Amino acid sequence: MTVHEKFLALGTHYGKVYLLDVQGNITQQFDVSPVKINQISLDESGEHMGVCSEDGKVQVFGLYTGEEFHETFDCPIKIVAVHPQFVRSHNKQFVTGGNKLLLYEKTWMNRWKPSILHEGEGNIRNVKWRGNLIAWANNMGVKILDVITKQRITNVPRDDISLRPDMYPCSLCWKDNLTLIIGWGNSVKICFVKERHASEMRDLPSRYVEIVSQFNTEFHISGVAPLCDQLVVLSYVKEVLEKTETEYCARPRLDIIQPFPESCEEISSDALTVRGFQENECRDYRLEYSEGESLFYIISPRDVVVAKERDQDDHIEWLLEKKKYEEALMAAEISQKTMKKHKIQDIGLAYIEHLMKIGEYDLAARKCQKILGKNTDLWEFEVHRFKEIGQLKAISRYLPRHDSILKPFIYEMVLHEFLESDYEGFATLIREWPGNLYNNTIIVQAVVDRLKKDPQNRTLLKTLAELYTYDQRYGKALEIYLTLRHKDVFQLIHKHNLFSSIRDKIVLLMEFDSEKAVDMLLDNEDKISINRVVEELTNRPELQHVYLHKLFKRDHHKGQKFHEKQISLYAEYDRPNLLPFLRDSTHCPLEKALEICQQRNFVEETVYLLSRMGNSRSALKMIMEELNDVDKAIEFAKEQDDAELWEDLILYSIDKPPFITGLLNNIGTHVDPILLIHRIKEGMEIPNLRDSLVKILQDYNLQIMLREGCKKILVADSLSLLKKMHRTQKRGVLVDEESICEACLSTILPTNASEAIRVTVFHCRHMFHKECIPEPNTISTVKFCNICSAKHRGPGSAILEMKK
């Protein structure tokens, strides 16, 4: 059989030749010989055919013309090959092969002239003609001939001479005009025809052959063909039975091989099922191929198998058959523009169905996002399928939320599923899903009904509050948040301006978080007044104190009407802040404060109030009698800076040695220590008296040294300033034509140079005509600058007279 891109030519053992289309339908029939057809050859145009048979007949004829050549030889002719360009008049050539290789050429008289190309090496087993090169195989090897020069350019010897050439024939195939592929036995060679350099020509052919790849295969070769940079090899396989150790014929293999210079790599291998393969031999198989369509034909005695290069659709089909849906989906996405049979969505749906069958529900739901996309009908169909198998929870996380929103009942169905069995999951969906996906009223009613069975469930209560918020029923949401003491209650109030709703819930807010509640109330005084807050907290004085205390910290005057009340609140709940409050407040009644402090025996606060009310002596007495703290008494006396207080302190301390020690150590800079020392009784033991006296002397010496130092500094500064003033006053003052009299505002110098100049210039740089200065009074004859005398510039007003 031989192959053309338009049809197939098939010869039989009964001497008939059939022309078949690519689907295998017979289109023409030729009765060539009564015996076996050995070889059929077609030119590139597909218009001329050469046929040879076992009885020695050779025919070359036109399929569509009357042109025909007949020749009968005295031996079987195994091979015939017509020129690839036989349709052209100057290429009317063909070769035949029996025991020798003959070339027939048509002469100018339309006669056929034979010439022997090769003989003497056994029968010709195969011939392939490409361009101007003829390759043939005989019992010794493969030869290549240049038809133009009639020179044989190479001889490739047979590797395994132990194999019978008639049982294991040579396979030849031209990949292109210069590359020949040889498969013989278990050896493959790729030969490349090259032009010889002119310097190397001598008596050698103009071309030579280089073997660029050579390797052995595992099985015997029945045919070879090119596939891009790879090879398609048809192999005859024999295997051994383990039990009997006898060989038997296995199914032939079609392998794709990647050739390398000295080795190869098997890319794929397929075993072919043909009828009668058990009885077939290596010579019973042939491989032909059609270059134009990349179709490969495997010929056996009973079958013709067509193989074609697998495209992406075939690959995806195979992946789907092997249930490799993930890989099929990826392959479809990569080659979606070239696919013809499959669609990405169909593959994806099959993948989802497969995942659901094997129980991978979460993965199936996750794939829905990518596969279903924005197709709402498919989404709804798949949701119902998940519901049927009880797996709505799996798909809930992946339902569309923004684009291509589904019908509300789909989301409601999922929410009801969670509400029945998973409160936390239900709450999560309510938080994550926008409120416009479902009918909020229906879901609220469902939650309310569920709360009747479980009224204390915090998760459901919180979720109900969120649903009320979506529904803008903020009052109900606020009540639930306050009941739950939820942290979002303040955010809810601020966000939706619910201050009017919390007027009667201030106590609840304060109990929940007093600090946040007070900050919120103080920040929104215009919405809830201070009076309203204080009134609401009347029965909770401890909360009332927290609110008023923070109000006072913000502004000492805003809550002044409550300062009297705050005295009792501080005394009851926050005594540490009572004294700072009394000090900072200018509106609290001192008498009321004093009464409360005296009732509670708050000494420090009482002392402060007494001193503030002008009763410093009582305050000092309380410090000494109640606190018995001389340091505080001394500090108090220092603050008041009152001699009578110091006298009272000395009188109270004179019979108390520890107090005397304290006074000796601290009053040296306020009261003369001699006054205290003179009053000390003789014989009284005073602790640390020596140290106190030494300290007094040291303090005194220190004061003396400070005074001396200050005196020296004062004298030095005075002398320096005096010298500076003297230098300044000795300097001259520039008087020129631009100088003016400060009194009459005319130029100070006369325009006539012969006139006498009578000018008075003060050290302050003000100038006057002599006659413009007022006469001095009788008390003092010193003249002063009228301008500067009011500013008391002292020496700057002295005069400098200028006379000509």
Automatic annotation (TrEMBL):
It is found in: Cytoplasm, Cytosol; Early endosome membrane; Endosome membrane; Late endosome membrane. One of its GO terms (cellular component) is clathrin-coated vesicle. CHCR repeats lie at residues 518-662. Keywords: Autophagy, Cytoplasm, Cytoplasmic vesicle, Endosome, Golgi apparatus, Lysosome, Membrane, Metal-binding, Protein transport, Transport, Zinc, Zinc-finger. The keyword Cytoplasm applies. InterPro entries: Beta-prop_Vps41, Clathrin_H-chain/VPS_repeat, TPR-like_helical_dom_sf, Vps41, Vps41/Vps8, WD40/YVTN_repeat-like_dom_sf, WD40_repeat_dom_sf, Znf_RING. One of its GO terms (biological process) is macroautophagy. PANTHER family: VACUOLAR PROTEIN SORTING VPS41, VACUOLAR PROTEIN SORTING-ASSOCIATED PROTEIN 41 HOMOLOG. Plays a role in vesicle-mediated protein trafficking to lysosomal compartments including the endocytic membrane transport pathways. This is Vacuolar protein sorting-associated protein 41 homolog.
